[in-house]
Amino acid sequence: MIVYYAIGGGLGHLTRARRMLETLRIDATIVTASPYAHLTGAYPVLEVPADLEHHVDAHRAWIHALGAERLIADTFPGGIQGELCGLEMPMDYVARLLRWDEYRRAVPHDLPSFDTTWILEELEPEHDAFVRSNSNQVAKWTACVPQAGPAAPSPPYWLIVHSGPEHEVLELVSYTRELLALTEKPDRILVATRCDVALPEGFEHVDAYPAAHLFASATRIISAAGFNVMLETEAFREKHDVLPFARRFDDQYRRAARRRASLA
Q1: Which terminus of the chain has fewer Cβ atoms in its 10 Å neighbourhood, N or C?
Q2: CA-CA-CA-CA torsion for 149, 259, 16, 40, nearest 10 degrees?
Q3: How many folded domains does the chain comprise?
């Protein structure tokens, strides 16, 4: 069994897991603690027991007991709390932008080495140096973002896309209302989210995951600055408004700044 270890609690880790496995054509079981585990498509899922949180040794023993022939670690090279450190098994690594200093404060253990690391975006210098000194092979990986999906609504419409949490979806709605005061109002304002959130008048919930097929027809896109949405909107950067949110380990502010610099 090959394990894709997507331990983060949000939807982004699972979206990236599916994209990586589809691109690399690897059959794997996705290990996750995300409440969105049912969105992994055809890939089998194994959910991490909740009682392993804050119990690093027990967490490590649980992973070891899986008997995996290979583990692909998503984002966190030593796991979310150091549970991958000290494991004796072949490992690969999927590296995206990480607040490296913050992560190393949380996981100060000796980190694993990897057979192959795929770099998905520019890393912090210290993170990049770790990858290159602890990987037998380093490859830059460019995702193919599928645009196919159900027929998109007729334009003009604006699109808010964010999986959650609820208060962040509402913050994006509030930001959009400020934008509306500065320009001509579109026929529809769609909110693509997995949250069951009450929307104000004039905003319409759309259940679309993934939402990439809605981007081309939208006249404006409003989102946070998570890895997946920034990747999926790369071709639509001129009409994309980005509102980054604070994360413990992800650096949405740096990702948003890079997008702004690319438009200058």
Answers
A1: C
A2: -40
A3: 2
Q: What is the pLDDT of residues 61-108, one digit of tens each?
A: 999 999 999 999 999 999 999 999 999 999 999 999 999 999 999 999
Express each pLDDT in 230-248 by its tens digit: 999 999 999 999 999 999 9
Q: Is the pTM above the cut of 0.90?
A: yes
pLDDT at residue 141 tops 90: no
- What is the span of the domain harbouring residue 255? 157-263
- The closest of 222, 226, 228 to 242, measured between CA atoms, is 222
Note whether 135 and 32 are same-domain residues.
Answer: yes
Same domain, 128 and 166: no
CA distance 187 to 145: 27
| 118 and 230 fall within a common domain | no
**Any residues with CB less than 8 A from the CB of 124 and at least 6 apart, and which?**
97, 98, 99, 100, 251
Q: Say whether both 86 and 173 belong to one domain.
A: no
Query: In sequence order, which residues have a C-beta less than 8 Å from that of residue 212 and are 6 or more positions away?
Result: 145, 146, 147, 149, 232
The DSSP secondary structure of 150-187, one letter per residue, reads SPPPPSSEEEEE----HHHHHHHHHHHHHHHTTSPPPS
pLDDT of 164-180, one tens digit each?
Answer: 899 999 999 999 999 99
Q: Are 7 and 83 found together in one domain?
A: yes
Rounded to the nearest angstrom, the gap between the alpha carbon of residue 223 and the centroid of all alpha carbons in its chain is 13
Rounded percentage of the chain residues whose pLDDT exceeds 70: 96
Distance, first Cα to last Cα, the chain:
47
Strand order in the sheet with 220-223: 204-206, 188-192, 157-161, 220-223, 240-242
